[in-house]
Amino acid sequence: MTHQIEKKTFMEWLADGQKLAVLDIRPAEEVGYASPLFATNLPADRLFADIDRFIPRRSIRTVLLDDGKGGAVAAAEALSKNGWGGIHALEGGIPAWTEKGTDNLPTFDVPGVPFVTKIRDENKTPVVSAAELQAWRDAGEDLVVIDTRTLAEFEKSHVPGGNRNPRRRATAAIAR
Fold this sequence. Notes:
With 176 residues, the chain is α/β, with parallel strands linked by helices. The protein folds into 2 domains: 3-98, Oxidized Rhodanese, domain 1; 112-175, no CATH class. The protein is 36% helix and 15% strand. The chain contains 7 helices and 8 strands, in the order E-H-E-E-H-E-H-E-H-H-H-E-H-E-E. The strands form 2 sheets. A 5-stranded parallel β-sheet has the order 1-5-4-2-3. The protein has a 3-stranded mixed β-sheet with strand order 7-6-8, with no helix packed on it. Residues 168-176 have low confidence and may be disordered.
């Protein structure tokens, strides 16, 4: 069964600690910093072909976001008919999400340093200084640096040798 959910419910789900997939189905060029935190862009024209890559279990509670014109509702109904349980569309889409501004919303429009610091502190993410990273490289450590920023941010500036991971936007990792 397909459901539309209100912004209030969506906010509760983002904070309840339960499994939740959030897919912004707008075209990539329309997705901006008003997207809810941890949303993944999977444009509607690729949704049905690629959803299994992003959400491997059809029972995962999932919220689809759109431009407010009903595409998420139609997509949720079609996915539901094809065996996807727990599919929901945010009522009013991104326009409803941002209607009163984004100051108190968990979105990507938080300025860079405060955002990174907040995520780092909340998730207890290990911190590696540039000097430590260079020392690891000089010592021949086998490591991968994954830069999770948007393409525009990556092209403007990134860690030398860093790889861009287009599917992740809100977390970062350095693997050794």
